[in-house]
Write a structure and sequence with these properties.
The structure holds 2 protein chains of 2 kinds. By secondary structure, chain A is mostly beta strands. Helix content of chain A is 14%, strand content 38%. In chain A, the strands form 2 sheets. In chain A, strands 5-4-3-6 form a 4-stranded antiparallel β-sheet, with no helix packed on it. In chain A, strand 1 and strand 2 (45-51) form a beta hairpin. Chain A starts with 11 loop residues before the first helix and ends with a strand. Chain B has no helices and 25 strands. Chain B is rod-shaped, with a radius of gyration of 30 Å. The model of chain B has no long low-confidence stretch (mean pLDDT 94). Classes of the chains: A mainly beta, B mainly beta. Chain A binds chain B through residues 63, 71, 73, 78-82, 85, 87, 100-111, 113, 119-133, and chain B through 1-8, 10-12, 25-30, 33, 47, 61-63, 176, 178, 188-194, 205, 207, 257-258, 288-289, 291-305.
């Protein structure tokens, strides 16, 4: 059941019950499982947002939020000390979803990965820099 | 061209001429590497210097032989043999070598006969353990085994000259900047992006170009066109501030030169009474910058070919 319409001028403390009632109403009426509504009270106001599946906390070099933490990759070539890969965001059983670049950790510089090999990789950021005056 | 960080820094056998150090970067076309070698930052297509034997260049092959990388690709393979030291040979690299003296008639004399075994040279030594020249140096390599001849304990009449070869670029100090050509290399190469400063504010050149093929410099960017009084206006200036602002702004027609200061003139609207000064950015340094690239990584097993 929806909470009553706000009259305005309510205190933060007084809004707690109103927000809880709103939360319960949305939860009860949201048709899909595994999701819901997130109601956050912050110093700057109240944020109501759709709640999605939790994601791993990003580490210092990890992918930005909202990215798949690990994806299936197939090597298609090499360039610049890196490998070109096709990305299968939904798994190898489905069509490729994008292309990208791969580096292998702990691989001796004399060693190489071959085209067609498949791996599960994680997204990271590497530094790049320029070269000309 | 730009440089990409390598997540795995330097998994290489040591080079006899100096140790490697990171950080390791590779050009985006894969043609060049930037790394530390013997205490200096260098840019090169290979890892360490090559060895030239009898005029033929063999390059570092990144594979360990008795603990050091070998050299291949020329007329002679060069590697560290556990018995004879640094050797040059047309035999397969890493071959286990043997030299022995074959007396003509052992019952008469054990020192009359000839040397036999594999055909190879020891570098810098006629009868002992071989060594490699340092960068720019040269040594004579003497025939051993079947190349040594008949004089017991003698020096082979067969010898080849061994020198070094390397075209590379080197930075005198630091990590980022202008690398000077060495040996037959030509031109200068750069690793890093130029940075200027004004007070505490830094202005670092972007790596990528905008839609008008211009770099940005921190908060300074190229303004191609703007709108004034509802009409499009051609600007074509680097602008610090907001072009057309009532408070004025600073602008420059041309991009700055590295290692020089950059002055952006004060400008204002014709009807503005704003007052301001030219902005002079002083040269700061070559730096890594803060731009990144998103890639994927996997954790491969360490795998090395060794002898």
């Amino acid at each position: 059941m929806l909470p009553p319409k706000l009259a305005g001028g309510e205190s933060i403390k007084g809004l707690r019950g109103w927000l809880n009632q709103l939360r319960d109403h949305v939860r009860a009426t949201t048709p899909f499982a595994g999701a819901g509504v997130s109601v956050d009270q912050t110093p700057g106001g109240t944020r109501i947002s759709t709640k999605t599946a939790p994601s791993a906390s990003p580490k210092s070099k990890a992918a930005s939020s909202g990215e798949t933490p690990a994806v299936c990759l197939e090597i298609t070539g090499s360039s610049g000390g890196s490998y070109e890969v096709d990305i299968y965001g939904d798994g190898f059983a489905y069509a490729k979803t994008a292309s990208g670049t791969l580096q292998a950790l702990n691989l001796a510089l004399a060693s190489t990965l071959s085209t067609g090999e498949r791996y599960v990789g994680s997204k990271v950021s590497i530094a790049i820099t320029g070269d000309e005056a | 061209m730009s440089w990409r960080e390598r997540l795995t820094p330097m998994l290489l056998p040591p080079h006899p001429g100096g140790s490697f150090s990171g950080p390791l970067y590779t050009s985006n076309d894969g043609a060049l590497h930037c790394y530390g070698f013997a205490g200096k930052r260098v840019i090169s297509s290979q890892f360490g210097y090559s060895i030239k034997a009898a005029g033929s260049v063999s390059t570092p092959n990144k594979i360990s032989y008795s603990g050091y990388m070998g050299f291949s690709g020329g007329s002679y393979n060069i590697w560290l043999d556990p018995t004879y030291g640094w050797v040059a040979s047309t035999l397969a690299i890493g071959t286990a070598l043997l030299e022995y003296f074959q007396p003509t008639d052992p019952s008469v004399s054990t020192t009359v006969g000839s040397y036999a075994g594999d055909a190879f040279y020891t570098i810098g030594s006629a009868s002992g353990s071989g060594s490699l020249p340092s960068l720019g140096g040269s040594l004579t390599a003497y025939g051993r085994g079947s190349l040594r001849g008949s004089t017991y304990g003698g020096t082979s009449s067969s010898s080849i000259a061994v020198t070094t070869s390397w075209d590379y670029w080197q930075l005198s100090t630091g990590t980022y900047g202008k690398f000077a050509p060495q040996n037959s290399a030509s031109g200068y190469k750069y690793f890093g992006v130029p940075q200027w400063k004004k007070g505490e504010t830094l202005y670092t050149r972007s790596i990528s170009l905008d839609a008008h093929s211009k770099h940005s410099y921190g908060s300074i960017s190229w303004v191609e066109t703007a709108t004034k009084d509802g009409e499009p206006v051609t600007v074509q200036k680097f602008v610090l501030g907001t072009w057309g602002s009532d408070d004025g702004w600073n602008e420059a027609s041309s991009a700055p030169s590295a290692e020089s200061s950059w002055t952006l003139s004060f400008a204002k609207n014709e009807d503005s009474e704003a007052e301001g000064e030219n902005a002079t950015l002083s040269w700061n340094a070559w730096v890594l910058g803060e731009e990144t690239m998103e890639i994927y990584s996997i954790n491969a097993s360490i795998w090395r070919v060794t002898q």
